[in-house]
Write a structure and sequence with these properties.
Layout: H1 12-25, H2 33-46, E1 52-54, H3 57-67, E2 73-76, H4 82-90, E3 94-97, E4 120-126, H5 135-145, E5 148-152, E6 160-161, E7 164-165, E8 172-176, E9 189-193, H6 196-206, H7 227-236, H8 240-258, E10 272-273, E11 280-282, H9 286-298, H10 324-329, E12 333-335, H11 344-357
Bound molecules: pyridoxal-5'-phosphate.
Pyridoxal-5'-phosphate (PLP) binds at residues 56-58, 80-81, 83-84, 126, 152, 154-155, 176, 178, 189.
Keywords: Aminotransferase, Pyridoxal phosphate, Transferase
InterPro entries: DegT/StrS_aminotransferase (IPR000653), PyrdxlP-dep_Trfase (IPR015424), PyrdxlP-dep_Trfase_major (IPR015421)
Active site: 181
Length: 360
């Protein structure tokens, strides 16, 4: 069986050593030493000023919306994981979908301004597959119209754009470190903000609003993460460069098989150091995409239709927009298996099956 992804697991003794520390200290959660160490190492690794480790990437998004006090309408992308949209709705805001650009599959900045109304408070865009959004254009639109910018950077660990971690853009960026993500802590995530006051707000939000044992600074939630999750992150972090390098090689092998056969991949913009977090392929038709999906499944190879259907089609969306580019592309995209232990011969097998199915 070849799944679309398999979590990287560090050598068990390296994880065990960290777990032994937990037993010695008897400190399991609530901002413990391993959580602190992970936050410091992530900030150093990503060259970020501020970062808070959270329960998961969805709570990180919800905390971002709360911290910026967003209300009314939030302009967002229809091409992402469902958590991007559901977090907006969960926080009582209304998602308004701007279409995507066909090359990068990220939000189209030229479609944003027409959607801005007096109810709009923010733009929430996803660096989908770790590919940078048009961050300069988005920032300019936000500035001009007095909007906040939140990036769902769940896929963006390890991508840098113009020499800076992609996680450093926007008022707040959120990360997921779920087991299926490039860098993982089993479950987990992070919020990243450049403004220290905003970070302080996020820190209160993460811990019930606690300001000492019996004082509270506003309403909060439990967005903390545990020593065990931090331990997995600390054990995984030394391998991240190898993990990204291996995925780069695998992606090049897929490219060599598939790209000159008329299959397409989203374009990585210039000035980007890419993280190879996914291998999406865009077929000419939905029929081709489904045929390939089924043919692979027959051989116990499980690709995923990330991200399908378009989030603009969710049944709890009240404000419908037309997003023809997303409607056209989302049904034709398939993410192929990509993980650390994937072998060259497995990639060859997958590509042969794809080309045979399409009769190329
Ligand atoms: C994984 C993911 C999330 C949610 O992260 P969790 O840690 O699973 O809560 C949000 N947005 C995107 C784009 C994701 O891929």
């Amino acid at each position: 069986m070849i799944p679309v992804t398999k979590p990287f697991l560090p050598p068990k003794n390296e994880y065990d050593q960290l777990i032994d520390q937990i037993w010695q200290r008897n400190w399991l959660t609530n901002n413990g030493p391993l959580v602190n160490e992970l936050e410091l190492k992530l900030k150093a690794n990503l060259n970020l000023e501020h970062l808070l480790f959270t329960t998961n990437g969805t709570i990180a998004l919800q905390m971002a919306i709360k911290a910026l006090d967003l209300k009314g309408e939030i302009i967002t992308t229809p091409f992402s994981y469902v958590a991007t949209t559901s977090s907006i709705v969960w926080e009582g805001c209304t998602p308004v979908f701007a279409d995507i650009v066909s090359e990068r599959l990220t939000i189209d900045p030229t479609k944003i301004e027409a959607l801005i109304s007096e109810k709009t408070s923010a733009i929430l865009a996803t660096h989908v597959y770790g590919i940078p959004c048009h961050v300069e254009e988005i920032e300019a639109i936000a500035k001009k119209n007095g909007l906040k910018v939140v990036y769902d950077a769940a896929h963006a660990f390890g991508t840098s754009y113009k020499g800076q971690s992609l996680l450093s853009y926007g008022d707040i960026s959120t990360l997921s470190t779920h087991a299926t993500k490039l860098f993982h802590t089993i479950e987990g995530g992070a919020v990243i903000a450049n403004d220290p006051a905003l970070l302080k707000r996020l820190a209160y939000l993460r811990n019930f609003g606690h300001d000492g044992a019996d004082r509270f600074n506003g309403v909060g939630i439990n967005g903390k993460n545990s020593e065990f999750h931090a331990a997995m992150g600390l054990a995984n972090l030394p391998y991240i460069d190898n993990i990204i390098e291996k995925r780069k090689e695998d992606s090049a092998q897929y490219d060599a098989w598939l790209l000159d056969k008329g299959l397409m991949r989203p374009a990585i913009p210039a000035d980007t150091l890419y993280n190879y977090s996914y291998y999406p392929i865009i077929f000419k038709t939905e029929q081709d995409c489904v045929k390939v999906f089924d043919a692979l499944a027959k051989h116990e190879i499980f690709a995923r239709r990330y991200f399908y259907p378009s989030l603009a089609k969710l049944d709890y969306i009240v404000k419908r927009q037309t997003t023809p580019v997303c409607d056209n592309i989302a049904p034709r995209v398939l993410c192929l298996p990509l993980y650390f232990n994937l072998t060259q011969s497995e990639i060859d097998l997958i590509c042969r099956l794809i080309l045979r199915t399409l009769k190329y």
